[in-house]
Amino acid sequence: MRITVKPYNTTSKTCDCPRILPNFARFMSSIRQEKINSLIKRELAQIFQQESRGLFQGAFITVTTVRVSPDLGNCKVYLSFMAVADKEAALDMVKDQSWKIRQQLGSKVGKQLRKIPELAFFIDDSLDYYDEIDRLLKK
Q1: pTM of the model as a whole
Q2: Which of 8, 56, 72, 92 has the fewest CB atoms lying closer than 10 Å?
């Protein structure tokens, strides 16, 4: 099977294998990023489990997604809150303690990472979105 690919100069070429365009590569995360994502997610989950009573007034916090930037300097952490009346207030409580969370994360993964990324916390509302879609489909 021959595939025709148009390169950037718009003259057509034929090749025997598919070609990955450079623009596609920026949307994919590297294997190293994926490993660091899972490492940070696992360690943050343990930190939230161990410290929830002391730092977060017993709130049940779940780490749903972690995304590290390509330079491994910034990290977006998406959290899900259960048994909490005000999710925004709980998120503010987590943001206030972010320096302590980062310090504990550094003590756990300091041997595997050169630099501990800056943590930015966000509410993961995907479960609420799924429930809303399910409710609308049942109508």
Answers
A1: 0.73
A2: 8
